[in-house]
Amino acid sequence: MKIDSCILKNKLCEYAACVTEIRRLSAVYIRDISDANEYSEILRENYDKIGVIGKNTRDILSEYLFPIIRSADDISHEIILVLQEFCNLLLDSSNGDELDLFLLFEISDRLLNELRRVDICDEYAAQINIHISVCYNVVNRTARLSGNRKINTFYRDEGLKAAELAKDLIRKDNFVKLGELGKIEAVRAVKFYSALYDTYFAEERTNIIRYKALEDAIRLASDDFYTEQLKNYSWNKHVFRCLEHMGQLTERGNRWNISQDQCREICKHLEILEELWENGNSDVSKDIPESHYRLILLRNRYYAGLSDKDSYQKSLLELYKRFSNLEYDMYSVQMNLLIPAEYIATLEKDNLSRGEIDVLKEIYSRIVFYALNSVNMDAFNYLQEYLIGFLEEFIELEGIMNFETMALQCLAALHPPTYVHCIQVADITAILTKHMLDVNPQKFIGVLGCNDVSEVAQKKDVILHYAYHSGLCHDIGKLTEIDTIFTYGRSLNDSEFEIIRFHTLIGKAFLEKYPSTVAYAKAAECHHRWWNGNGGYPEGCGIIDAISGIIRVADCIDAATDSIGRSYSKGKKLEEVIDEIINDVPGKYMPEAARLLSDSKVISELRYALSDGRIRNYRYTYVILHEAEERINNIQLPGAEKALSF
Q1: Residues 100 and 198 occupy one common structural domain
Q2: What's the maximum distance between 2 C-alpha atoms anywhere in the chain?
Q3: What would the mean pLDDT of 513-520 be, rounded to a whole number?
Q4: Same domain, yes or no, for 427 and 325?
Q5: Are residue 430 and residue 336 in the same domain, yes or no?
Q6: Where are the alpha helices (DSSP H) in 120-259?
Q7: Is 639 a residue whose pLDDT tops 50?
Q8: Three-state SS at 78
Q9: 353 by DSSP, 3-state: which?
């Protein structure tokens, strides 16, 4: 099938514009809305629009893009150039802004295989760089799926294959065959590819490889052959970026376990970074804020054993006070979320002092405020990444801030419809649990240690509280997947489906870390598993308890009837959903919970929860987001000095 390159270009630009519009419509600007009713109505209207736009994007892909990249036919040079432009629309590698990573990977993989068959050229070098960038971004996204190595490792290895191609281009006999743009692309690729090891599965061997890769990239700047070939290239900036990547090897409490000896070697290299910065080199200081540079130096000196913990903690808090702000660009997000995570990583979690508790109390308050005010901000990918990094270091403060509250506030900030869904499921779970306790109390034997029906009766209120909060926490794992949930413009591929399904195990892992939420981990893990254990996901749940079985029914009821936040399907009527649950495959749902749906009183309460109750929950969401906006308008915060007292 032959497609005119101009038509293809216009259609692909239209696709990128549509995906951008979908992202814009997925959240609502609180500052433009006067009340909660308007908020929920605009959300509903926006998701109706997303449904229409999504059909158009799917048509563009099926009619124009997929016939090219999924065909075995050769791709013309003219079409290759159009597709490379489209790649750059989908991912801006300079700042990490991305529209559709997994689609981009499919396109890039096809183009890279196509270009490998021709002579070395600038387009080939550019595609290698694109492929490394897209693989890194997928690796970075899937690194949040701690415990699932398969997806993460696949894309890391695909990126490393491209890195080998880049290293081959850097060979002097191949380098001279490239034009200036191709040479720049090749140098950038070998400078950046070590970031592909930014996973939760780094090992001592890979740490050595990463460090050596950055050293090799730095050496290019002192090799007369390369500097002569690229006279107009900013080699100072190249060195600084390499040093920046090297300094980030110890990020998030040295989570990759870089050895102290390696840290000392890194510190020797960072002396160059310090010299470049302190001398005011314009190629460096205009691109890298002082806060970022200072943090890199402080962290590496600490993990190299060149400064003590007290000095490091004090310096981190001083940095936070000086540079945290109410902006949402990449580096501001980093300062507002990474510095607290680095500080918390140094604390003895089970032995906090009074002063440390006071500091954490203030940090938590400010992070909640910062997150809730972030709706519609540009640096969403960075916000999600660093919020998750912060939550991984989170320490509960009894009576002040627990994990459930912090995580739900973050969910409200990142994706209000999922936050409302969690409240809805909690409400529906409470309704079903209350009636089940009345008509079938024996189903709760074993729950919260109940040995018989009399104990169930005695603990009725405790069981209801437990059921409600299990419902609230059932989708906590989706915090790590909001950028995948945002894929409304096309069908999900296999990797994306696996990412979505993995939210159950991520939620379980998060909740198991804390005494206050460990009891809810079972519901997070099992709410998509069939009652009889023969279907759904994940495998290995064991016996499904009554609360998990009820939450599964509640989850289905809310999801199927919701028209907000689910552009891919219109909300069904409650009666339709009840009929589907009652008459579905035997063993899919808890029979006793399904039978409750025939009770007129239960139906009446569910109808309220799905109408006025849902409006109430969106109103509550509007209020907490609006309050964050109001605080922005009423408080003067030129920096953190006036906001933080520690």
Answers
A1: yes
A2: 85
A3: 94
A4: no
A5: no
A6: 122-142, 149-170, 172-175, 180-192, 204-219, 224-229, 235-247, 251-254
A7: no
A8: helix
A9: coil
Contact call for residues 229 and 183 (beta carbons, < 8 A): yes
pLDDT of residue 637: 33
How many independent structural domains does the chain possess?
2
Residues 428 and 561: their CA atoms lie apart, in Å, by 12
Task: Name the residue range of residue 34's domain.
Answer: 5-348
Cα Rg of the chain, angstroms: 26
Cβ neighbors of 466 (< 8 A, separation 6 or more) are: 447, 448, 519, 520, 547
- Cα(first)–Cα(last) distance of the chain, in Å? 66
Q: Mean pLDDT over residues 198-209, rounded?
A: 79
Q: Is residue 496 part of a domain?
A: no
Residue that is written with structure tokens 């999801």 in the block: 559
> Where do we find the tokens 């987001």?
625
Q: pLDDT at residue 613 above 80?
A: yes
Instruction: Give 537's contacts (C-beta < 8 A, 6+ positions apart).
Output: 501, 504, 528, 529
Would you mind telling me the total number of residues written for the chain in this entry?
Answer: 646
Question: 538 and 505 in contact (C-beta within 8 Å)?
Answer: yes
Q: 235, 232, 231, 301: which is closest to 266 by C-alpha?
A: 301
Reply yes or no: is the peptide bond before residue 441 cis, omega within 30 of 0. Answer: no
19 occurs within a structural domain: yes
pTM: 0.90
Say whether both 316 and 424 belong to one domain. no
Mean pLDDT, range 424-443, rounded to an integer: 97
Q: What angle do CA 425, 372, 621 make, to 5 degrees?
A: 40
Interval 441-462: pLDDT, tens: 999 999 999 999 999 999 999 9
Strand partners, 97: 92
Dist CA 419 CA 432 (whole Å): 20
Burial (CB < 10 A; 0-12, 13-18, 19+), residue 19, is buried
Instruction: Please name the amino acid found at residue 149.
Output: R
Structure tokens that stand for 451 in this block? 């040995």
pLDDT digits (tens, 9 = 90+) for 288-345: 788 888 999 999 999 999 999 999 999 999 999 998 888 888 888 989 999 999 999 9
Give the chain's mean pLDDT. 88
Q: What is the pLDDT of residue 329?
A: 84
How high is the pLDDT of residue 413? 86
Contacts of 215 (CB under 8 A, 6+ apart): 269
Contact indicator for 59, 50 with CB cutoff of 8 Å: no
Q: Are 96 and 54 in contact (CB under 8 A)?
A: no
pLDDT over 50 at 173, yes or no: yes
Please identify which residue in the block is written with the tokens 């940090």. 363
Instruction: Please give the pLDDT value at position 290.
Output: 84
CA atoms within 13 A on the CB side of 139: 24
- Give how far the C-alpha of residue 84 lies from the chain's centroid of Cα atoms, to the nearest Å: 26
Under DSSP, the state recorded for 62 is I
How far are the Cα atoms of 23, 136, 152, 362 from residue 92, in angstroms, in the given order? 16, 13, 21, 35
| CA separation for the pair 117, 33 (Å, rounded) | 55
- 75 within a domain of the structure (yes/no): yes
Element (H, E) at 98: strand 97-98
Shared domain for 135 and 226, answered yes or no, is yes
Residues 305, 434 share a domain: no
